[in-house]
Amino acid sequence: xxxxxxxxxxxxxxxxxxxxxxxxxxxxxxxxxxxxxxxxxxxxxxxxxxxxxxxxxxxxxxxxxxxxxxxxxxxxxxxxxxxxxxxxxxxxxxxxxxxxxxxxxxxxxxxxxxxxxxxxxxxxxxxxxxxxxxxxxxxxxxxxxxxxxxxxxxxxxxxxxxxxxxxxxxxxxxxxxxxxxxxxxxxxxxxxxxxxxxxxxxxxxxxxxxxxxxxxxxxxxxxxxxxxxxxxxxxxxxxxxxxxxxxxxxxxxxxxxxxxxxxxxxxxxxxxxxxxxxxxxxx
Length: 283
Description:
This protein is of the alpha+beta class. The protein is 46% helix and 8% strand. Residues 1-26 and 268-280 have low confidence and may be disordered.
């Protein structure tokens, strides 16, 4: 039986409608970062949680090029339910999804996939990260935007099948932000490089390579005091969390290559008395 004729509880047939008029395929957008939201032709569509879970699961499968069997979807999303109840829940979820727009899900006899016309913010994040991490690819116009590289994957959902996916995304975002900071440093765009590096530090505060980039940017700008400040913060965190010291590689940045002397902040010069502004006495 095809998905177009899956019955609802009560025997109602699934409508063959392509959704409300005016909802174009190219305007179907699914957002999974920082929470679930779905937009069709610019309008937000509200779906029940069980339908949201199906769309999210299929979106994650699509990013890996996987087409899911119905049994796989049921087994992961309703693992604690009986087979009969789980299959019924899937049918109801598909009804609600296709009632919004049939193109959201491509449903075969035994397989399910997210509709090919649906864009997903998670895939945009992965594409951006891929360009940042590739030495051979030029950056797109929006690749220096860090917002898509810092979102969390459905943070309010308590789902076992999301645990590994969240860690995969975290690692990808972390490496992409570090790569972005390095690229921006080479371009001399220091404020943006510092912003990208600090966002990476927020994801993984103990990642030394990110602190090294942050310190390098400060030295490039001539902000030796700022570089020492970031080193102090990193050293204190490292000692408190792991009882370790920063590596010799990061400490070597604070010595001049020629003499090996410590690159210390410039000493503040004593203030000189300001010249008097009182008029000279009349002669």
